[in-house]
């Protein structure tokens, strides 16, 4: 029995259409038909009823579908493990990470971790902070690094990093914070941890303030560079632009009360997650 027959069967059962299955699998429709026929010949039973151009699982097809999924999942899991062995890995760690974290302290942390534990393969999945806890909760990833705490009761959440927030604006201006808030648009929603409360505070004291929601910090920085507006951003995220004199930090009583927090979210502590968590704690003390 060929694993491709099973993969084709599963996709055809899901879509109930051979043509759509062929498009999803990037093979020809005759190839899909051939895979199904060979699988049915091998099992000596009909898996689909053909009704014109439509198909429907037979009782045997319904019975075999969960078995086919189990066989293909086991095949893929074992082939992945074998591939890891070929690459010199004997452990794997899947981490979901928010974009802001991935582009700030994570590269240096990850470089040191991989150097210390070269036998652990690390996969990084970049997601929005509110999506990360869900991935950890369902077991899709081993750990999460997010800018907001989890609301899921089956995961553990701990603070691993805090940093200051600064008011960043165009390099050419010299105005004070109150004037900047009147003169420029304020780019919001680029950090999930503090913007909701901050926006309420800003609009409470400046009811006519002009805002623009920009979900990515990298885009926010480019907009500020061109003089389009200002924003309250984590200090580490503007460090390079400040050094290159592309952005400027302005004194801010509002920013002084803000903190950008990184949360580590975990569900089950494995050897790999324990090592990474311990490494993060050491890294945190050094930085």
From TrEMBL:
MF (Gene Ontology): DNA-binding transcription factor activity; transcription cis-regulatory region binding
Pfam hit, one: LysR_substrate
Alphabetical keyword list: DNA-binding, Transcription, Transcription regulation
InterPro entries associated with the record: LysR_HTH_N, LysR_subst-bd, WH-like_DNA-bd_sf, WH_DNA-bd_sf
Signal peptide: none
Domain of life: Bacteria
Gene3D superfamilies in UniProt: 3.40.190.290, Winged helix-like DNA-binding domain superfamily/Winged helix DNA-binding domain (1.10.10.10)
PROSITE patterns: HTH_LYSR (PS50931)
Segments forming domain HTH lysR-type: 1-58
Family: Belongs to the LysR transcriptional regulatory family.
Protein name: LysR family transcriptional regulator
Species whose genome carries this gene: Domibacillus epiphyticus
């Amino acid at each position: 029995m060929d694993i491709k027959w099973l993969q084709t069967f599963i996709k055809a059962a899901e879509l109930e259409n051979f043509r759509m299955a062929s498009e999803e699998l990037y093979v020809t429709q005759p190839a899909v038909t051939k895979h199904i026929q060979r699988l049915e010949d091998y099992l000596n039973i009909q898996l689909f009823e053909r009704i014109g151009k439509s198909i429907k699982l037979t009782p045997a097809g319904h019975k075999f579908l969960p078995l086919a999924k189990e066989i293909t999942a086991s095949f893929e899991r074992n082939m992945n493990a074998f591939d890891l062995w070929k690459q010199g890995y004997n452990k794997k760690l899947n981490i979901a990470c928010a974009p802001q974290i991935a582009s700030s302290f994570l590269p240096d942390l990850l470089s040191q971790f991989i150097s210390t534990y070269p036998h652990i393969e690390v996969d990084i999945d970049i997601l929005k902070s509110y999506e990360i806890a869900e991935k950890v909760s369902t077991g899709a990833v081993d750990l999460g690094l997010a800018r907001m705490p989890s609301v899921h009761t089956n995961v553990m959440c701990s603070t691993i990093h805090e940093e200051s927030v600064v008011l960043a604006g165009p390099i050419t201006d010299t105005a004070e914070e109150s004037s900047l808030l009147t003169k420029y648009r304020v780019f919001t929603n680029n950090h999930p941890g503090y913007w909701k409360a901050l926006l309420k505070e800003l609009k409470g004291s400046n009811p006519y303030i002009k805002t623009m929601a920009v979900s990515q910090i990298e885009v926010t920085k480019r907009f500020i560079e061109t003089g389009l507006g200002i924003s309250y951003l984590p200090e580490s995220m503007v460090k390079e632009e400040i050094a290159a004199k592309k952005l400027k930090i302005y004194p801010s009583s509002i920013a002084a009360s803000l903190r950008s927090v990184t949360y580590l979210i975990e569900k089950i502590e494995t050897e790999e997650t324990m090592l990474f968590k311990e490494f993060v704690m050491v890294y945190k003390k050094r930085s």
